[in-house]
Every structure is written in structure tokens, then in C-alpha cells.
## 1
Amino acid sequence: MNRTIPLLAALALAACAVAAQAEEPQAARQLLLKQDVTLPATTVQAKVIRVQFPSGYKTPLHTHEGQGPRYVVKGHLKVEDNGKTSVYGPGEVFWETGAAMTVENVGGGDAEIVIFELAPAH
């Protein structure tokens, strides 16, 4: 009996199994922000807040209870935070320091941001 045919069949089956695994959908992971954090207390209150800005809107100078990452969902926002000015667009993440700041919608249409806030628990 020729042993080459069963060996080739086994290799073909293995190749088909590998190809099938390659076609399965995979989760994509992308690091958007990495920040060392000194928490304001041993217990913090974490908040997730969605804010929508109409075209041309600018916040007054303000602070939030806590620092944390901010994710821009849509639009373009000019952020003045702790003496630094930057413009962020959809999919970008920045770190808000908790210092006095302003946010201005400079994109021409509506803008939206998700705030992840880490504040001292009350």
C-alpha cells in the first residue's frame, strides 16, 4: 500500500483547518491612550458622561471633579487644558488634567465626546 496518499490527505485536511481558522473574525485591539495616574483618593467615583456640542459652541472656563481620558466620537474640538491647546477629531483620545479648561467645537457641524472621569468618591 502506498503511504504517500494517506499522508497527502492528512496534510490537505490540516491545511483546510488552518485556512478555516484564518477566516474566523478576530477582535481588533488598538491602544488609544496610556497615562500614569495618581488617583485623588483611595476610593474614586468613576463616571462616563456623553456631551454633545452644537456647531460653534465654546464652554466657559471650567473644571471637572476628576481627571481622566476623553474620547471624541464626532466633530473637531479645540481643547485648552492647563495651558496647552490641541485640536482632536473623531476616534482620538486625550487626557484631561482636571485643571481649568475650555472646549470649543471648531468642526463646522455637531461634535460629541465621551468623558471618563475619575473623581474622589463622596
## 2
Amino acid sequence: MTNVIIYGLLLIALAFFGSPLFSIIGAIALLSFHAAGIDSSAIIVELYRLASAPTLIAIPLFTFGGYMLAESGTPKRLVGLSQALFGWMAGGLAVVALVSCAIFTAFTGASGVTIIALGGLLYPILIQEKYPEKFSLGLLTTSGSLGLLFPPSLPLILYSMVASNSRTAGGSVPDVSIDKLFAAGILPGILLVAILSVYSVRQGMRSRVPKIPFGWSNVGKAMKDAAWEIPLPFLIIGGIYGGWFTATEAAAVTAFYVLIVEVFVYRDLKLFSDIPRIMKESMVLVGAILVILGCAMGLTNYLIDEEVPMKLFALIQQFISSKALFLVLLNVFLLIVGMMMDIFSAIIVVVPLIIPIASAYQVNPLHLGIIFLTNLEIGYLTPPVGLNLFISSFRFERPVSEVVKATLPYVGILLLALIVITYVPQLSLWMVEFLGSK
């Protein structure tokens, strides 16, 4: 009873001092476990194990680096480079938006940051270039979460940590290391960008939007402007798979590189005024994730001890025997999860439940991760809690209903891509095997 009172006081204190919602949810989880008679020592053990995990440091470092990029002049330089490379195409500016937002989201890991930083920059340009308003609104809303499959996306790292804490049907720990998951997401991520680019080019041709003449001088100027930011993706991916450093060390390299470039090279940020503020803002997100992550991992251990996943599998197996049918059911379930939960909560709560069941149906855990994150990426665009819908509504001053209608064609296209990703596992696994053989 004493512990319940203590956690209740903690909850009141968190709310009083304006703590993030996720922190309050974490405290509620602790309180609920006590009320249900669940020993919270499992949560404390998981928090300790989480704090000592070598991969943990990747989350705050990549988040800090992404927030610095968002606050600097990187969005403008990235758009300028993409426009110089793709602006000559029919619908080229729409492709510029897709590519720029995908790369930016990969580094920030937060869809809302992309819509705020790049959406506000690109939306007036799209309208000025005679793109239909509905098309432009749907494009930027969709693009906000388009880069979640590309390294070093925060959801990829979080999925790796949660999955590595789970157990397969045989009781073994799945091999879902961060570097392998990074590799698994590359081709499916390219597929999503490519299929949306084809649709955008088609719309650009139908709307007869003007093209930007290609010029090597424009490309050279744009590359010169972004000369220090262009190497960043190659530094991370090449460094990890070239054996120069681990994924965790890549996070440190990224944060340090971005800090030096944005503060001392471009001078977009001030060391003693901007950097402390950005550190605070980025760590609020990280702290919120860690609180709920510790609680959820304690809950995961409880579910495993009670054999909840195996009981669910036994129930499902009575009705579904084939892997193909299971994947249909899995996608329907994950789409519903994406409609009801944000991506971080869904990863932490749902992944430990589905990994044992999916492994029993011989679904590779890396492939499962890409299926999972693709579904949650679509979930950003679906009511009632699709985060992109509300951020776009706020940013572009449009009713949520109008944003929902604008994104419907994009949701349909992404669902087609999801089918391909689900039933062509080599799309996710080929890059892992290729880089693993090097």
C-alpha cells in the first residue's frame, strides 16, 4: 500500500511540474501494476538492464543530431539540392518533396518535425508551381513519415531493442541487431519513395506543372551549399557496414559531426544559446521513451512468464494454419494498432506479443520488423489518432477532414507497397544477406 501511495505522489508531481504525457503514462503504468498485484521489481530490473545496454546511447545521440538538423538551415539546403537534381522531371518538385522529407525523417525520427520544418517550406512552393492544393496537402502529410525505414531512424533502433528483449516460439532471442535492421529497411524504404514518386510524376503531367530546366551549374551550387551534409548518410551506412564503427558508435559520430558542421562550419546554430535549448527539447522525447520502455519491458517479462504469447498462438492456430493467411491477419491487426496508438507505444507494447507468434509461422524477425514499421508508417495517416493528420491540419490551417481526404490516394498506394513488402521477404532480407557476406 505504501508503494501505491508513493507512485501516486510521483504521478501528481509529474503532472504538477509539466512533465511530458509519456512520463505520466509511465507512472500510471507503475501504479496500475501495483493495483493489479504485479511485482514492480521487474520494472526496476528492466530499467537497470536498459540503462546498462550498450545500444541505449544510440537513441539520445541520433535524436540530438536530428533535432540539430531540424533547427539549422539543413532543410533549405536539402530542398535546394533535391530541386537541382529532380526539378527537371514532370512532377519533379513533388519528387523533391518526397526525397527531401524521407531523408530528413530518417535523421529526425519524428514525423511531426519533418512536417513543421520542411512542410512549411515546400507547401507554398508547390502551390506557387500550380500543383493542386489537395495533392500538395496529401503529399506533404504522407511524406512526413516516409523515411522511417531508412537508417538511422529512431523507430528502427527502438524496434531492435524491444525485439532483442523478446523470445521466439522456441525460446531463443531473435537476431534483430540494429545494423541488420538498418540494412533490412533500405530497399523497402526505396520502394515506398519510388512508388509515390511515380504517382507524383503522373499527377504532375496531368496538371501540366512547369519544369525546372536542368543545369550542371545549379547542381554544382546546390552541392557546394550542402557539401558538409551530403556525406552524412554515407558516413553512417558506410561506416557501419565497412566495419569502421558499430551502430552505437555511429550515433556518437553523427551527433559530433552535426554539432561541428552546424555550429562551426555553417554557423546556423549558436553554441551557448541554441545547443542547450535543442539538447533539452530532444531529451524530453528521449526521456519519455525511456520511461515507458522500462515499464513495458517489465510488462513483457510478466507476459512471457505467464505464457500469454503462446496462449494467443494456440488460439490463433485453431483458425489459421497457413503463413500467408497469418500475414493477412497480422497486417489487419497492425493497421488497427496504427490507427489507435502512436508508433513508439505500439513498438513497445505490441512487438513482444507478436514476435513469438510470428516466429511460430516461420516469419523472419527482420522481415517482421519491416512489416511492422510499414504498417505503423501508414498508421500516421489514418484516423482517429494519425499524428500526421493533426500536425498537417495545424501547420497548413486546414480541417482534419480535408487532410484525411487528401491523404486517401497515398494511403491506397502505401497499402499496395505493403502487400509487396509482406509477401516478398527478400526485399527486406537481400540487403542483409548481401552486406553480411562482405
## 3
Amino acid sequence: MSTNFKSGLRVYGAPLLPGYLGNIVVGSVFFVDSTSANKSDSPSHGKIKEKPFATIDYAIGQCTANAGDVILVMPSHAETVSAAAGIDADVAGISIIGLGNGDKRPTITFATAAGADIDIDADNILVANMRFLCNIASQTAMFDVNSKAFTLLGNYLAEGTATGLTFVNVTGGAANACDRAKILHNEFYAPTAGNMDRAIELGEVADFVEIAHNRIIGDFDDAGIHNPTGKVLTHLDIHYNTVHNLLTGQHAIELVSACTGNCSDNRLYSDAYATTLDPGSLKCSGNIAVTAIDAGGVPIPALSDVTDNYIGTDDADNAAATTNVAANEDGSLLERLEQIQEAVNIGTGASLAANKSLVDAIGSTGSVLSYGSGSALGAIGTTFWVKKTLTSSAILQAGVDVTGVSSGGDLFVEDVNVLADATGLAAGTNFTLETNNVKGSAVFFSTAVSGLGANTQIDLDSASVISKTTVVESTKKIVAKMSVADGTGTGTVDIYIKFRRQSAGATIAAA
């Protein structure tokens, strides 16, 4: 049987087509199958599936560089790698392709030494459709990538009986040694806490590396995809990956260096948005972060304040051009905001003053009233009543305070009502109310004590001696007095005085 398949290869009667695995085979094809009774790592084997090689590394050694050679690893093939470079892909341009589906794919198990790994030491190598399991505590890395244009496609990499440190290390030991590496459609799984640092480490300067369509789940001390300080990758493209870091406080993707390129449409999971994605200097679009079960995703990084963002633009006023937005309480968010603005500002009217809220303007929180300056309840012309209860024996010729001093401006006294209890006032001749104003006459209400006997009532219009409106000047007060003699007895009167504000926020309270 010929080993040169320039007219195409048929495996089990079916042609090997290019598909996602590459071009039609033009070089030699070698078979590897540990389950075959006729396996042997000898030059006379490997060319037909009935007489396969026993190991992948031996098959690599039989390939010709850059001739398009393909190594087909048969279903259920099993192999153990127990030393550094236990499999050394050191022949350029070859493809190592596992056959079979699911758990029937070829399985490589790493054991014995922490340094046991597969080295990629030649350019343009493809490894596809295989399973790789870690049985070594703190394995340094499964794949040590040291050459250009390596492709890892459609594989399963997972912890077995132990957890390692890294699944794939794209490093090369020198800048640009691993340019154009591609890690595509793989599954990485390491849920056990304790060792794993990252699934993919971008450990050295490289150009045009692509990481796409991978599923990464693990308890990673660093991140599912990680890049260390000072190793700036350019044209890096990370897209359509699902990355779930189970470790609290750690990233799904963390590029510590200012890598440039694209980070788009990834689905990322961690316990906090702040530690989900660090994109270095990648341009980001369409990435979604989730931090809790039963929660919807949110864009990450958060949308910045730019001119295309109609929640606000990047200027001092954070203004958006909303000229054509109609005020509509049943419309979109912007239309409802416009409707609120119309209600607050009365169309083109003045806005609220600085550091003022609607509560300040209205003067009520719904349970607490405020009459300060700027409040609708405290506006010029608004009225309010003050009540003071005095015992007859407390009303002296020298006077007793009915109110404290006023504040905020003058107050016009519109009316007075004095209501006596079942006993009323005793002694004295006239009961009077007066101010300590600087201007005008002091007494504005005076009535005979005899008219305030049991259960009587006298207002400003019915006072028997003096009856007139007045003004309480700002910082002044109202005093009650008896003429001729001090009051006696335990009778009481309730004194009601109605004020109208002459200045916004002017107020006075009972003494």
C-alpha cells in the first residue's frame, strides 16, 4: 500500500477531506494504535492501520518536515507521558489527528514527573481531537509551545487524579517564537481547588495569537486565560470563549500586560465584575459577565461615556442631543425622562436651583413639612398659624412671651383668636398682645379681661380696646401682658395668631 496520498486518502472506505482539519493529505499517513495486537515502533509498521506504531512520538520521528505528513491516532489509543518532552513534536508541518468521538478519542495521560509534557518544537503543527489527562500533582504544563503557527483544535484537557498548574503554555522562551498560535474549539476542565493557575498561559511576546470557541472551567489561581507582566502580545484575538473561574476573587481572563488586539463575544463567569475581565489594551465588544447563579449577564467592560451613548456624552455637561425626543410618560426611557423634565422645568422655564430637590421645592416629604426659603410651602404670601397656651397667673404686667423671635423676614399678622377655658382669666384690666418692633405702635390687640371669662372667645375684629393688623419685623417677637395688675388663677387661654409671609421662608414659632 502506498504511503503517498497525493490523490487523497480513504480511511475505513471514507475520504479524508480538508474540512476544519486542513488540506487534503499530500504527504505520508502513519497510524498509531496501542490497542492493536500488531503494534510496534519499528520502521516496518505504521503505514497501514492493521500494523500501527505503538506511540505517537515514534510516529513523529518517521515524518518528513513540511511534506504534509499526517499521524492518525486510532480510537481508544492510550499512552502515558512521564517525562519532559515525552512526546516531542519536533518535525515541522505535521498533523496529529485523533480518531473517534467523546471518550473513545485517543487519551494521553501524564504521570510520574511534574515536568512531564508534550513539547511543540517545530513550526506549523496541528494536534486535534484527542484527550489529555493530568495524573501529576502540580504538573508544570501539558503543552509547552515553543514554535510558530501551532494549532490545538477540538481537544479535551482535564485534571485526572491530580491537578496541574497549566494546560497550555504559549511561551517559546523568546519573543515571537510562538507567533500565529491558534487554540480553537477545545475544552479545559479543572474544578478541584488547590493547584491550577491557569488553563492557557500567554507567557511570552507573540503576534497574531488566536484563542477562540473554547470552553474553560476551573479553579484558577490566576485566570482561565492569563498573561504575565511585561509580555505584550500584539494582534491577539480572543473571541467566542466561555470561561468560568470557580475561585473567589480571580479573573476569567486576565491580561496583565498591555496586549493589543481584539476581545469579543466571550461569556465570562466569576464572583465579581471587577475581577472578571482584565483585557490589557485589547479592543472589547460584546463580552458578557455573570457573577451569580440565576442572574442575567451584563456587558463587560462597562459601556464608557462616549458621544454615541445616549445616556450621556463625554463633556462637562454630560449632555446628549435629544432635540427630537418627545415627552411621553408611556414611551421609551428617554421619552419618560423628557416628560419628567417638562414637569419639573415647566417646558422652557427655569430649572431647580443648585443643590435643591423636589422635596426642597415642594416643602414636604409626604410626612415632614418644610417652610424654608425655596419651598412652595414657605413662599411669599403663604400663611400659617401659631398657637400658644397661657395660664392666667403667668400673664404679668411685665409680659410673657407668646412667640420666639421671627427669622427669615417680616411676617404680617392677619388675625388673632383667643379662646378661654371653663375658668377663664382673672385679675388685671386689659389683656394685650404687642410686638417689640422697632417701628410702629407696639400693641395691636387689646381686650377687657372681663370679656375672657369662662368659655369665651375673642378674635381680632371683636377685641374691645384695640384691634388692628400689624407686622412682626424680622428678629422680633410677640408678648402677652396684663394692664393694672398681674393675672391670677389657674384658668387658661389658647392664643391663635395667623401670619402671612412677606419674605420667602420667613417663620416664627410659639415660645
## 4
Amino acid sequence: MLGGLRQWLAGFLGDSVATFLLGAALIMTFLAFNVLFLVWLERKVAAHIHRRVGPMEAGPHGTLQTVADMLKLLGKQLLVPAAADRVGYLLAPLLVFLPTLCVASLIPLSGVEAFADVPYGLLVIVALSGLTVLAVFMAGWSSNNKYAVLGGMRSVAQVVAYEIPILLSALAVVLLSQTMNLRHIVEAQQHTVWYVLLQPVAAVIYFIGITAETNRAPFDIPEAESELVAGFHTEYSGMRFAMFYFAEYTNMLVLGALGATLFLGGWLGPWLPGPVWLLLKAYAGIFVMMWMRWTFPRLRFDQLMTLAWKLLIPAALVNLAVTALLVHGAG
């Protein structure tokens, strides 16, 4: 059916444009259902950790509660602060999601890239994932709200700090596999062992880094409601507000899938199809993120920066140097 639809679109728009539109539609459809599921799952995880039941009224076990919330947000009035920079204010909710959508198309699902096969896919993903912070800062600055500006500035400092250990931990995997192609990284683990066994330090650093990059507790400093009302999206309402959470939960899945690709063998696994294994591993990482959110208190900003610059980055550098020496000695 999808092949016939692609051929029909190609007759009007050309083959490359038809492939792009169909691929983007499939990714967006899946990501939309993913966000609805993750919001429901987070409520249930939080409830069970707190010994509550969570949403139960809308649908079986509250499964339709997030759908009801989405419909509520769709019906809310979209307000723009009188003193806001209108162009930046309106563009920020759109730009915050575009890099994550591009990254999602680069994750290999099963033997081949999902929608693109990039020789330096890991480098492209790291570059794109850092662009989200620009939209976050744009949202805070253009809102003309001091709390939103502080949230945006915190987000910039946080992402800059934690992108470094994420990249260094990923480079340790590159040294082992001798490639930046994500598909080849998974295939290299097929012939040896999963890299989480060879690089446990890098795996832990990567997980802490992506938890901070996605603004998840205990690293949710840019959205610290006890200090900044709601942080960089304080002045947003309705679906503009929802777009920031859409991007956050999508980024959790994408970075979780990337972590599964780097350290847990990607799509590798018995019996089940490759994409199912990849999603199971990614959702397992997301579950741990949710577990952490409802277990640990929020860090102070100085503690967050100290953790990155004085602990994670030195540890990642030492791990990378040791890995390089071992790989060179083995070669």
C-alpha cells in the first residue's frame, strides 16, 4: 500500500520529493503516538512509585487521558505577550522540533537506515541534536520574561556542558568499531559483544548526558517550576506549549534509540523483528529516566555544572584515552 502511495505521489511531485513526504509523514505519525504513550507511561510510573494508581477514568487504565489532554490543548487560545519579539516567539515552537525529526530519520531500524544512510551518521546526529537549544533560547529571549530568559540561558549552559561528555563517550565506541556509520556500529557488535560490556563507563556517562540534555530530572534546571515558574516556555499556551513537550519526549526516544544503537546492539536480538528490539531497548532506557525523575531531587545549577565539568568530562577523557591505547595496542 505504501509503495502504491509513493508511486502515486511520484507521478505528481517526482520520486525524491514523494519519498521525502511519505517518510516524513510516517515518522511524524509514529512520533505522535509515541508522545501520547510516553506521557501516559510517565504518569503511571510516577503513580506506582508514589503508591498511587494514576489516571484511570478516561479509557481503560486512563489510556485515553493524554488524548483528552491533547484535545484540551488544541482548544486553548493561543496568546502572544504584548512586548514579545513576535517572529522569534512564533518560530521557536517549530524550530525546537525540526532537529529531532531529522535525527529520527537517521537511526538504523534493522540492517539499513530508516530513511537515510549517512556515512558519518553519528556526527550528523550530534550536530543536529545541539540545535534544539537554539530554539529553546529563542523561546526564552523572545518572550520578554525574565524567568523565561533565565531558563533559556540555563538550557544553553547545560547543553553545552553535557554535549561534550556525550560526544566523548560516543567516540569511544567509534574507536572500537572504527566507523561513524550507525549501521556498521551495530554490525560490529554482532561479531563481538555489545559495547556496554566493553565500555561500561562510556555507557553510564552517555546516559547521564542524555538525561541532562533532554531536561529530565534531576537535571530539569531550565524548567525548574519552583524557581522559574515554568522556565523558557512560561509565556506559551495551547499547542505552542505542547510543542516543547512533544520535542522533549521525542528527543528522549531518539537519544534512547541512539544509546541502544551504540551500546546495546541496536536491532540485534533473537526471535523478534529488529525494529521491535530497538524500540524495546530504547523504551527500557526511557523507563529508567522516568524512574530517576521520581526518585532523586533536583540538582542546584552549580551542582549540575560541577558534575559535567569536573567529573563527567574528565572521566570521559580518561576513558577515551585508555580505549585509544588499548585499540592501538591490539592493532
